Amino acid sequence: MSYMSRRTQKRQRAIVTLSDQNHQQLEGLREQREELLGKYEEQASELKQNILEKENELALLNIEIAELREFKSLQQQQLSCIAELEKEVVTMRCRHSESLQALKSDFLREKERYQAQAQREVNSLALAANKEASECLLSHTQEVAMENRDLRAELQELIQRADALRTHQDQLQAQQRQLLLEKEYVHELRRLRAAPHSHSTPQGGAASVQVDPAAAAVSTTATTTGC
After folding, report:
1. What pLDDT is recorded for position 197?
2. Mean pLDDT over residues 64-92, rounded?
3. Residue 128: inside a domain, yes or no?
4. What's the predicted TM-score (pTM) here?
5. Which residues, 6 or more positions from 47, have their beta carbon under 8 angstroms from its beta carbon?
6. Which long-range contacts (CB under 8 A, 24 or more apart) does 119-127 make?
7. Which three-class secondary structure string do you get for 9-20?
8. Which residue range is the domain that position 122 belongs to?
9. Phi-psi region of 107 (alpha: psi -120 to 50; beta: other; left: phi over 0)
10. Full 3-state SS string of 80-99
11. Mean pLDDT value across residues 123-144
C-alpha cells in the first residue's frame, strides 16, 4: 500500500508539474500582451505630444501675429503662414488620426491574434495534459491490476502454506499426544517391572497386575525411538 501510495503521489506531482508549466506559459503570453499594449500606448502618447507641440507653435504664431498687426504685409504673410500651418496641422491631425486609427486597428488585430493563439495553445496544452493524465491513469490502473493479481496469487499461496502448516501442526500435535501416551505406558511398564513380586497371595486375595501385550509392544517401540 505504501508503494502504491508513492506511485500515485508521483503521478499526481507529474500532473501538477505539467499544470504549473501551462500556467507559466500563459503568464508569459500575458506579459507579452501587456508589453505590446505599453508600446502602443507609448507611441500614441508620442503622437499626442507632437500634436500638442504643433498646437503650441500655432498659439505662439498667433501671439506674434497679434503683436505685429501694424505691419499689414507681414500680417498677410503671417496669415498665409498660419493658413499653411493650419493646413499642415489639419493634415498632421488627419495623419495622426489615421496613424492612431491604424495603430488601434493593428493593436486590436494583434490582440485578437494573440488571444486566438493563446487560446489555441491553452487548448493544445489542455488536450496534451488530459491525454497524458489519461495515459498515466491507464498505466497506473494497469500497474495496480497487475500488482493486485500478484498480491492475490501471493495471498493464495500464503493461504495454502498456512493450511499446510496448520495440517502439519495438527499432525505434530497428534504425534505429540501419541508420544506422551507411549511415554506414560513405558513409565508404567518400568514401574511395574521394578516393583517386588510376591509368590504368596495376601489373605484378602490380591490380584496380580496384568500388562497388555499390545501396550508393552507400543512402549518398547517408543523406547527404541528415543522417547
Report:
1. 52
2. 74
3. yes
4. 0.30
5. 96, 99, 100
6. 121/25, 121/29, 122/22, 122/26, 125/22, 125/25, 126/22
7. HHHHHHHHHHHH
8. 2-150
9. alpha
10. HHHHHHHHHHHHHHHHHHHH
11. 86
